[in-house]
Inverse folding.
């Protein structure tokens, strides 16, 4: 089972008011969702940290704070926690904020991050991380893929023998012949 959550969802449904009418903060409600997730014992839990937009997380700094809080609380509760590092186009955030958050989460030991082609989730209309962003984090921080994925990459001939990925995108590109004589 895969569970997805994110700060602000309880606020948008009005459940942050509770039965006594006293408001409850986003992080408390998010952690409550993680407690439910732990009870259900899912394979993966993912927080879509900036998806709801500036109504609940105004800018890149708030999205960064929320992503780190979500990661910490998920790990504290023993969940296989990942993060969709993202923002909506009407938030005061940009891709630099997402790159910073990716780096911080990677240093903090995030289990996984969600990536989409070109960092642009056209189906849901928000910005996320691109495939190459996960590669950057692995290379810059000396991280390895999950053992099962690492073994698959090696079986496919996509690793260079030392845990790094070969440049298969260039090797498989139809433009390879056109760029063969171009100095890099």
């Amino acid at each position: 089972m895969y569970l997805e959550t994110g700060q602000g969802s309880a606020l948008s449904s009005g459940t942050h008011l509770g039965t006594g009418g006293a408001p409850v903060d986003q992080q408390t409600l998010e952690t409550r969702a993680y407690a439910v997730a732990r009870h259900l014992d899912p394979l993966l839990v993912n927080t879509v940290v900036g998806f709801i937009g500036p109504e609940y997380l105004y800018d890149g700094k708030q999205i960064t704070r929320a992503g780190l809080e979500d990661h910490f609380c998920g790990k504290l509760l023993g969940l296989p926690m990942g993060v969709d590092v993202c923002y909506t186009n009407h938030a005061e955030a940009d891709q630099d904020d997402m790159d910073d958050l990716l780096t911080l989460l990677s240093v903090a030991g995030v289990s996984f991050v969600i990536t989409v082609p070109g960092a642009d989730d056209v189906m849901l209309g928000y910005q996320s991380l691109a495939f190459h962003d996960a590669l950057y984090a692995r290379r810059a921080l000396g991280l390895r893929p999950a053992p099962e994925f690492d073994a698959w990459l090696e079986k496919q001939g996509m690793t260079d023998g030392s845990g790094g990925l070969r440049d298969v995108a260039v090797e498989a590109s139809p433009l390879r012949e056109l760029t063969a004589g171009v100095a890099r």
Summary: The helical segments are 9-12, 26-40, 60-76, 95-107, 131-141, 147-155, 168-172, 176-179.
